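Q: Got a minute? One more chain.
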Amino acid sequence: MKDLKHLIYFENLLQEANNDLVKQAKADGKRAIGYTCYFMPEVLLDLPGCFSVRLRAPRCTSPDIATYYMSSRVCHYARSLMERALEGGFNFLDAQMATETCTATCRFQEHLEQKHLDSVQDMRIIDNDDFFCSFTDVPFKNNQISYEHFAEQLRVHVLGELHNHFGIDVSDDAIRAAVEQQNEVSRLMQEIGSYRKLDNPTITGYEYHVIQLCTLACPKYLILPYLRETAEELKTREPDLKKEFRCKVVLAGSENDDPDFTKLVESCGARVVCDRYCYGSVESRQIIELPEGVDPVFAIAKHYLSTSNCPRFMPQDEMRARKKRIADLAKEYHADGVIIASNKFCEYWSYERVIDTVILNRDFGLPVCSIEKEYINSASGQLRTRFQAFVESVEIKHIQEGK
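A: Always. Here it is, folded:
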């Protein structure tokens, strides 16, 4: 296929957290607000005067110093973020909006927080006099009480902090404007992603992964023009005459902000047509509805709790619904199988991956490849062997079924 016009630019934006668009927004006088989890509503961090940056640690190879502070049994993702922070890679941040969700990233964010206690010497990891860290409690259930509690947490620990520290406009009108901007990003990503449903998709999983990450790591108002151009470009993009893949897969699992991992999967003959993982678009690029007469903060709180497929929701009905969700996505995107990948020492996805491996195959007849990986693809040779074997098993299944 013809190369996408902005792909190289998108790739370059992902080389550093403090990328060119982040620098431009900072030069425009806007505040950079970091976060690590879907449960921190990015839309509330994109109010006028500030912009959201979902933290990544691109090109981090060995988090040795971070391991001293966090232990070798903490997931590589959290340690890599800590390593990059210690290196000064996040000094551009004006605030970090933390969530009481993943324990590992909570530990990372606690290190960022200035304690100002006699018994604890401040490390000043983020070298920014204005920097502060605020923690938000996130419920473990989806019900009315949880929505109300979460909404109040967002009012106090997000909106209140942004207004008190930086004078950010947190009025209902400002929130609605931020939602409108986010929804445009979501509509464009849905349009771009719809081409993955074609018999011969006109966008690769790698390309989509790169674009999706840019929408999370860059100011929305600056990335939108490039998204609009890309969506228009894809309307006339022609697929390769010969399919460059042997099967299609849903890629699911824990945190995944490395497009090279998707490229590795696709180099083995499996086209990634759906991204059901942390940092993917399946949840984060759904339209946020603000019903008339409903408090927008409550509506946003309900949206993020009800759309999440995070394994920290442990009721049996929620767990079963997550398996069916992946099976439904496989059907919607015409996938032949599922790859479930979890990061080593990920406390939530370590058991979710094992359960998915059994249930998706037993109850839904989906071939499943289950892997545990590091944040950095240091074992690419071993992973390649696993993926190649999985692709061959899917092809054999098709032959047996007469497809």
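A: The radius of gyration is 21 Å.
Q: Perfect, thanks.
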